[in-house]
Design brief:
The complex is a heterodimer. By secondary structure, chain A is an alpha/beta fold. Chain A is built from ten helices and twelve strands. Chain B is an alpha/beta fold. Chain B is about 40% helix and about 25% strand. In chain B, strands 7-6-5-2-4-3-19-9 form an eight-stranded mixed sheet, sandwiched between helices. In chain B, strands 10, 13, 14, 15, 16, 17, 18 and 26 form an eight-stranded mixed sheet that branches. Classes of the chains: A alpha/beta, B alpha/beta. β2 of chain A pairs parallel with β22 of chain B, so a sheet runs across the interface.
C-alpha cells in the first residue's frame, strides 16, 4: 500500500507563524517522500538552526536538528556511514550561506548523494528579522533600523562554483513545482541543491507572497497580476550535462545557467538549472578505493567477533612495524 | 664511564636535510639488534631550514624517555654543535664536519636571537672564539672526544656508477654521521644495512648509495681513531616479537582495533600523521575473512570534522576525529551537541604548546582544564589520558567502549610528546581487548523512545536506519522522543538522566582503568601525574629505587569522571605529595585539590615546549628528598 503524506507527519505542535513559507516546504517534503514511497526509517532529515531548523520534528522519519550552520557535515557523516539512507538537509539562508558558508562550498566539491533544501527568505526570522546573506543591498525589511549595507549572495552562483551537480530553484507557494523538484533532487546521484524562495510574512515585508506573485504590477489589459516567478521548463531550458558532451556544449550550458541565475527583479526563474551527470558522487569515488563500500559501509561492518574481541586482523600492519 | 648498551644519542640538522631518516636508521638498527629504543623528535613549524633534532635513548632494559645529557652528538652542520655541544657528557663524543669549524656563530642564520646571545656570552666568558671550533674546544676541555668526519672528501671516493648528485650527497651526510657513531660504539654495520633497507624501502639506488657512504664513514672512524670509546652497543638475541612505532601510529592502530570505520580530520600538527596512517591503511581483513575498511575524510575545518564524525556515529558507525588544541577550540559547540544528544563520538586530542597557535610543533599539557570544561553548559563527557604508546593503543579501544556504553562524547587526551615520539614495544595484542557497544539495538518497535528514562540514565540506542527505531535529535532541550521541550519538569528530569550516566560510569569503570600505582604508596614521596610524563617518571623511579629512595608514582588515567575518592585515599596517607606535569599552572594539581581538598607539597611544572626528561624528574625528587625544594619547581631542559 502506497504511503500518504500523512504517514510522514508527527503530532508535534507546529509553532511557525501563520502563512510562513516553511509550511510549503514541509508539506512538499512530505508529499515527495510519499510519492517516492520511501520507508520512514530509511530516511533521515537533518536541519540547521532557526525556524526551518524545526522541520525534522514535524516529519515522521529520523530527524536530526543540528547546530547553526552545520547541517551539511552532520548529514554527510550519516550518509557516508550508511549510504542506504535517504538523507535530506534543510536550513535557512543565514544558516547555509552565513555561518555555514564554508560547509556549503565544501559540500559541493565532495558531491555526496544528499539533497539540500535552502529556505531562502532574506531574513533571520527567529531572531526577529535581521538581514540575512541573501538580502539585496539597500533593501530595508521591517525590522532593519537602516537599509541593508551588504550585497546579497547569489546562492545559485555559489552552488555552481562549488561544484554542486544538481542545482534548482523553486518557490514555497508552488507546491506542485516544489514537490517535483524535491523528488528529482532525491533521485539525483550526487549533491542536489534547491534554493527555495520563501516569504517570511512576519519580517520580510518586501519579498512577500504578493511581490513574488506580482500583485503590485497588474496587466493593464486584463487587470491580472504579472507574477515575477516563471518556470524554466516552460521556456525549453535544458539543464542536463551528460557524459560525452563536448566542451563547447558544456560551456554553452553553463553560460545559460549564469544568465538565468543572474535574473532577478521582474523576472525570477524557477526550475532545475543544472543537472550534471559527468561528475561521480563521493560514494562512487570511495568505491574506487573500497570496492565493497556499498555492501559493507562503515555502519554495517562487523567490528567484533562472537566473543566480543576486535574482528580486525592487525597482523599485516603489525608485521610492517616489527623489529624483532 | 664504561657502559655497555646504555646510550643517549642525538642527531641534529636543518629541516629537510634528512635528520628524521638518519635518526630512524640509527633507532631501527638498534631495535633490530634487540635493544630497547626511545626516540624524541623535535622540529620547528617550518618546511625547510630550521633546526630539528632527534634524541634517541638506547638500552638493554625498556626505556621510555629522554635523558638531559647526550653521549654521542651526531652532526653534519654547525647549528647542531652550537645548540647541543654543551649537553654532551664528559667522556662522550661529538661527530662533526671539520670543514665547518671556522664557521662563525654570526653566520648560523636560523639560530634564535636568544640562543645566539647566550652562546656569545658563554664563549666570550671562556675566552673562546665565536665559532663552531670554539664550541668544540670547550667540549674537549670538559673531556668530550672529538671525531671529525670529512663528509665531502669521503663522498668523493664514491666515483663512477656510485657517485651521487650533490643534492643527494648533502642529505647523505647525516646518514654517514650515523654510521660513524655506530663505528664509535662498535655496533655491527650489518644492522645499519638492514635499517637502510627498512627506512628506504624498495628504493634500491638510494639504499646502495647510502650503504656505500656509511661504509666509508664507518671505515674512516676505525682507521683514524683508536677503538677505545668507553660506550659500547652490542646486539642481543631476543625471542619476544617487538614493534617500533610512533604514538600517532599506536593510536591509529587502536582505532582500527576498536572498529572505528569513519575518521574525519582537518590537517593540524601534531595530529595529522594519525589520519594519514589510517588512510594509508584503509583496507584490511577481519579474522572471519571478511574485508574491512575505514573511510577517512579530510574536511574543510574542525567544526566539520566533529560534526561529520557525529553524523557517522548517529548512523551506527564507530566514528572519531583527531586534532590538536586550536582544532578542538572549534569543536566545542558540537561537543555539547553530542553531549545533549548522547552521541558516542570520540575525539583524539593531541595537545601542543598553547594558547592560540602557541608552539605548533612543541609539547605541552596545557589543555586539561579546557577539555574538562569545553562547551557551554553542563553535559557528561569522559576524558581519558594515556601515559605511553602502549596505552595509546589500548586506551583508544576503551575510548570507544566508554562512548557507546555511556552514550557520551569521549576525549582521548594525548599530546605532542606521545604523538611524535617512537618506541620499541611488545607487539600489541588486540585479542586481549573487548568491544562493548553498550545498548545499541538492531531493531526497535512500537513506542520506542530514544531517550526513555531509565535507572541508569542510559537508554537503548538505535542507529539511523533501524526499523522501528525512529528518533529525533536537537540541540534544544528535548523530551524522551527527542522533540524540543522547554518544560521545567522535563528539563530537570533530562538533565538528571544525562548526569546519572557519569555516576554509573564512575562506578563501573574498574580502578585499573582509572589509575595505576607504581611502587609502595606509603613511600616518602608520592609522585602524581597524568599523560606523557609517565615515561620519564618511570625511568627516574628505576634509578631512585636502585639508590634505595622511597618514592612511588600514581598515574591518573581517567580524568573525567575523576576518581576523587581513590586519589584522596592515596594522597591522605602520602608523606610528601608531588605533582608533575607539562603546563604552567599545575592544572592537574589544582584539579585534584578541587576534588579532594588535598594540596600538593610540590608542583613540578614544565612549559618550555619540551617534554620532561628522566634526569629532570630524578634531580627534582632528590631535591625534594633533601628538603630544600621550593613548592613550585619549574623545569627548563631542552634546546
Amino acid at each position: 500500500m502506497a504511503r500518504k503524506p500523512q504517514d510522514y507527519k508527527t503530532d508535534v505542535h507546529n509553532n511557525w507563524c501563520p502563512g510562513c513559507g516553511d509550511f510549503g516546504i514541509l508539506n512538499a517534503v512530505q508529499m515527495a517522500l510519499a510519492e517516492l514511497d520511501l520507508e520512514p526509517h530509511r530516511v533521515a532529515v537533518f536541519s540547521g538552526i532557526g525556524c526551518s531548523g524545526k522541520t525534522p520534528h514535524y516529519i515522521n522519519t529520523y530527524g536530526i536538528h543540528t547546530l547553526h550552520g552545520r547541517v551539511l557535515p552532520y548529514a554527510t557523516g550519516a550518509k557516508l556511514a550508511n549510504p542506504d539512507l535517504t538523507v535530506i538537509a534543510v536550513g535557512g539562508d543565514g544558516d547555509g550561506l552565513g555561518i555555514g558558508a564554508g560547509h556549503f562550498v565544501n559540500a559541493g566539491r565532495r558531491n555526496v548523494d544528499i539533497t539540500y533544501i535552502l529556505h531562502n527568505n532574506g531574513v533571520y526570522g527567529l531572531t526577529k528579522g535581521q538581514a540575512s546573506p541573501t538580502l539585496k543591498l539597500g533593501i530595508q525589511t521591517k525590522s532593519l533600523p537602516q537599509p541593508n549595507i551588504n550585497q546579497g549572495i547569489n546562492p545559485l552562483m555559489i552552488a555552481l562554483a562549488a561544484g554542486y551537480t544538481f542545482i534548482a530553484r523553486s518557490y514555497a507557494y508552488d507546491m506542485k513545482h516544489l514537490v517535483s523538484i524535491i523528488k528529482q533532487a532525491i533521485a539525483h546521484n550526487g549533491s542536489a541543491f534547491i534554493d527555495v524562495l520563501q516569504p517570511c510574512p512576519t519580517y520580510n515585508d518586501i519579498n512577500t507572497r504578493e511581490w513574488y506573485g506580482g500583485e503590485d504590477r497588474k496587466d493593464p489589459q486584463t487587470g491580472k497580476p504579472l507574477p515575477r516567478v516563471y518556470k524554466l521548463e516552460k521556456q525549453g531550458y535544458d539543464p542536463l550535462i551528460t557524459p560525452g558532451m563536448s566542451d563547447a556544449e558544456i560551456t554553452a550550458k553553463l553560460n545559460k545557467f549564469i544568465e538565468k541565475a543572474l535574473e532577478w527583479g521582474d523576472r525570477i526563474p524557477i526550475g532545475i538549472l543544472l543537472k550534471n551527470e559527468t561528475v561521480p558522487s563521493y560514494e562512487d569515488r570511495i568505491l574506487q578505493r573500497i570496492p565493497f563500500y556499498r555492501e559493507m559501509p562503515p555502519a554495517k561492518q562487523t567490528i567484533a567477533d562472537e566473543l566480543g574481541r576486535p574482528a580486525i586482523d592487525l597482523t599485516k600492519f603489525l608485521e610492517e612495524l616489527k623489529v624483532t | 664511564m664504561h657502559r655497555k648498551n646504555e646510550l643517549s644519542w642525538l642527531v641534529g640538522g636543518a629541516q629537510g636535510s634528512g635528520v628524521d631518516s638518519a635518526a630512524n636508521i640509527f633507532a631501527k638498527a638498534c631495535a633490530f639488534g634487540g635493544l630497547y629504543v626511545y626516540g624524541q623528535r623535535e622540529y620547528y613549524s617550518n618546511i625547510m631550514g630550521e633546526h630539528s633534532y632527534y634524541q634517541v635513548t638506547v638500552s638493554d632494559r625498556p626505556v621510555r624517555s629522554t635523558r638531559s645529557y647526550t653521549d654521542i652528538l651526531v652532526s653534519a652542520d654547525t647549528e647542531t654543535v652550537f645548540l647541543h655541544a654543551r649537553d654532551v657528557n664528559p667522556g662522550g663524543a661529538i661527530i662533526y664536519d671539520p670543514k665547518l669549524t671556522e664557521t662563525a656563530l654570526s653566520k648560523v642564520a636560523a639560530l634564535e636571537h636568544r640562543a645566539r646571545h647566550d652562546l656569545q656570552r658563554y664563549l666570550s666568558s671562556k675566552n673562546l672564539p665565536e665559532t663552531m671550533g670554539g664550541m668544540l674546544q670547550d667540549a674537549q676541555a670538559r673531556g668530550v672526544r672529538l671525531y671529525p668526519v670529512p663528509f665531502d672528501e669521503l663522498l668523493q671516493k664514491m666515483t663512477g656508477e656510485k657517485a651521487p648528485q650533490l643534492s643527494v650527497a648533502k642529505r647523505m651526510a647525516n646518514t654517514m654521521a650515523v654510521a660513524a657513531s655506530c663505528a664509535l660504539v662498535r655496533y655491527d654495520l650489518k644492522l645499519i644495512e638492514r635499517a637502510l633497507e627498512d627506512v628506504f624501502q624498495g628504493k634500491k639506488r638510494v639504499i646502495e648509495l647510502n650503504l656505500r657512504a656509511c661504509e666509508l664513514a664507518y671505515e674512516h672512524i676505525l682507521k683514524n681513531f683508536a677503538q677505545d670509546f668507553p660506550l659500547v652497543l652490542e646486539p642481543l638475541t631476543v625471542s619476544e616479537p617487538r614493534i617500533y612505532l610512533t604514538g600517532n601510529q599506536a593510536t591509529a592502530l587502536g582505532k582500527l582495533a576498536a572498529g572505528c570505520t569513519v575518521q574525519t580530520y582537518y590537517p593540524i600538527s601534531p595530529a595529522t600523521d594519525e589520519s594519514v596512517y589510517l588512510e594509508a591503511h584503509q583496507l584490511f581483513e577481519r579474522g572471519s575473512g571478511e574485508p574491512g575498511a575505514i573511510v577517512v575524510v579530510q574536511v574543510e575545518d574542525e567544526i566539520s570534522a566533529i560534526t561529520m564524525a557525529t553524523g557517522a556515529a548517529l548512523a551506527g558507525a564507530r566514528a572519531a576525529t583527531s586534532t590538536s588544541g586550536p582544532g578542538f577550540s572549534l569543536m566545542v559547540e558540537a561537543l555539547g551537541w553530542a553531549g545533549i544528544n548522547e552521541v558516542p563520538v570520540v575525539v583524539t586530542l593531541y595537545s601542543r604548546g598553547s594558547p592560540s597557535t602557541g608552539l605548533p610543533t612543541r609539547h605541552e599539557q596545557g589543555d586539561l582544564r579546557f577539555v574538562l570544561h569545553a562547551g557551554h553548559g553542563e553535559f557528561p563527557r569522559i576524558v581519558i589520558a594515556s601515559g605511553d604508546l602502549e596505552e595509546c593503543f589500548y586506551d583508544e579501544i576503551r575510548a570507544f567502549n566508554y562512548a557507546e556504553k555511556y552514550q557520551v562524547p569521549v576525549v582521548h587526551l594525548l599530546d605532542k610528546a606521545l604523538a611524535s615520539s617512537s618506541q620499541t614495544l611488545t607487539v600489541f595484542d588486540p585479542q586481549r581487548c573487548r568491544i562493548d557497544r553498550g545498548q545499541l539495538v538492531s531493531t526497535a518497535g512500537e513506542g520506542y523512545k530514544r531517550f526513555v528514562y531509565t535507572e541508569t540514565g542510559i537508554s537503548p540506542r538505535s542507529a539511523l536506519g533501524t526499523p522501528g527505531g525512529i528518533f529525533w535529535n536537537t540541540g534544544d532541550e528535548h523530551d524522551e522522543l527527542g522533540h524540543i521541550t522547554e518544560d521545567p519538569v522535563e528539563r530537570v528530569r533530562m538533565m538528571e538522566k544525562r548526569a546519572k550516566k557519569l555516576e554509573v560510569a564512575a562506578r563501573e569503570i574498574p580502578l585499573s582503568e582509572k589509575l595505576t600505582i607504581f611502587g609502595d604508596p606509603n613511600a616518602e614521596v608520592l609522585l602524581l601525574s597524568w599523560g606523557s610524563p609517565k615515561g620519564a617518571i618511570l625511568d627516574a623511579l628505576e634509578v631512585l629505587h636502585a639508590e634505595k629512595h622511597s618514592v612511588c608514582f600514581v598515574q591518573c588515567r581517567l580524568l573525567c569522571p575523576l576518581p576523587s575518592d581513590d586519589l584522596a585515599q592515596l594522597l591522605q596517607k602520602a608523606k610528601r605529595r608531588v605533582c608533575i606535569e607539562n603546563n604552567y599552572s599545575g592544572q592537574f594539581a589544582g584539579l585534584v585539590r578541587e576534588a579532594t581538598g588535598i594540596a600538593m607539597d610540590h608542583r613540578i611544572v614544565k612549559f618550555n615546549g619540551r617534554p620532561i626528561t628522566m634526569n629532570e624528574v630524578y634531580e627534582s625528587v632528590k631535591q625534594i628528598l633533601s628538603g630544600k625544594a621550593p613548592r613550585r619547581m619549574v623545569l627548563t631542559h631542552g634546546a
